[in-house]
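Hi P.,

Sorry for the delay on this. The queue was packed all week, but I finally got your sequence through. Input first:
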Amino acid sequence: MNEQIEKIRKTIEPLRQQIINHKVYSSIKDIDDLKLFMQYHVYAVWDFMSLLKTLQNNLTCTSVPWFPYGSADTRYLINEIVVGEESDLDLQGVRMSHFELYLDAMKQCGAATTAIETFTEVLKSTGNFNAAYAASETPKEAKDFVEFTFGIIGSGKDYLQSAIFTFGREDLIPGMFISIVNDMHQNFPDSVSVFKYYLERHIEVDGDHHSHLALQMTSNLCGTNAECWEEAEKATIDSLQKRIDLWDGAYRQIMKRTTTTAVE
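Then the structure:
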């Protein structure tokens, strides 16, 4: 494996461990806690698609007339993941994006979708992020997360987009969280079956094959340019920190609910 890839992996390992072992997971005791977590996480599910589509636009030919562009391995990676993310199958075999599947999971368990739906509707109609944040009352941590992603998108630097896609956008789902959701599913299958399915599909999409191709994509784009590698490492660190901040926001909201419930 490329020495620069290994250097980034070693540098970000402490941050990865912070995410894997984040206290937000153990704070989720019931479905009401899970609802709050999902209301934060859904913003990351949504903006992942914009990052992915940016890579597709930059690393494949999406214009007419068509010409072969870039590495075939890279085209395969991006196009395959776009298909999986944009038009996967739900539990009933209906085609939908993972974002739409996540919204279904939220609705099934009773999590509020008003904020994220208002955000996307206002953004779609106005193209104004600030108006969308204000109208939806987006949590600060979610706003900061989305703004970071779109800052990287707006940089026009495909190697940075690839780096945070490869290293910073893995939802590092610990076994503990999977166990929590599985336990909830056993007790409340009609409330969390869609979310359980979403997690299973997400883990499958992030399999070894995709991870290998993503690493190769980043390596190809940075090449032998030391400055590109330095920028990629910094962007990856910042991306993981934004994930930690997002989880911190969800944790504080869950703790706020727990404290309020205890007082009542």
